[in-house]
Amino acid sequence: MIPMTELRRFALPHAYAQGVPGDVVHRVLRNVTEDAEGEDPGGWTREWSSLAKAAEARGRDLDAVRYYTMARFPYVDGPARQAAQTGGVEAFDRWRKRVRGISRLDLPFDGAGFACWAAGLSQRSRLPLILVLGGVTSTKEQWAPVLAGADRLGAAVVVTELPGVGENMLTYGTDSTRMLIHLVDLLGRAADASRTCVVGLSFGGHLALRHALEDDRIRGLALAGAPVRDVFLRAANHTPLPRLMTQTLSHVMRTPVDRLPAALADWGVDEAELARLRTSVAYAASRDDEVAPPSDVRLLERTVPHLRLVENDALGTRPEQAAETRLWLLSQALRMAGTANGVRRAASARVRVLPARRRLAGTSAGAPA
314 and 322 in contact (C-beta within 8 Å)? Predict the structure, then answer.
């Protein structure tokens, strides 16, 4: 069982990244109790699922997606979280049919398969490709706002999940780059794959980094909190990691917790590999990140030839900062893909976020610039 203290701590930035209002987050956190599980009163999944069902009853499907996504956090471990996972996908499907322009891709691969949400794909007018990949707790449905605005960005946008996350039935491992290479191959029929930029969060960013080392179609990487080497060295040396992290990795890798140190030992990216990276990298870092600590950031600074770096005291711990970071990542990806019109629109959206930030008192951390 995941300790409630860790569940609360890691869920906060996860909720803000989706645009869940702060008052809603804190109300749920007050209601959940340490000893409640699943559908029990006070249970994590029940409290969030109740909000999702109420939102569905009011026809607010996008809110329902957000609440169901929180209900299944950090991963599906039983019937209650599976129901939340299914509910989130179904609510998203209803929402995207009203928005229009967003399609679903179900792709078989290696005897299993994975799914994507896509916008802007066209065989007649192939646009640069923005591929979005979350971390080990992030579902593809979280990126609804980006998909909804894709027609104004001058790029095709495709969102998928890491192996083992959400609807991705593959196993997360050192060979997961094969999935991304296969995906870019397929998307090249309806997008300009030679101008592919990947937006990667946390472990999704790490996979994107390794993908770029193998695939010269990747023109740019826009990463946030992506582990590079440190966390894998710590795991290999049996240094304790947060329990939520180890249990989630165990789930997506289908590897027992006691075997994770050996399984993760060779996952780090070393100096020589980073030095030969020709892809432009934009990286948003947090100085107190447990997954991608400052030592990883300094490693990138020493080795990556084309790096644009922004640092904050803590990423995603305030709603407006999470929104601004998402917009910064998107604008950097569009800039590297060469879609000037999209950059202007993303920058304009980012400016609209800033006044709300300045109205808040006591903001000590700088926002990504």
Answer: no
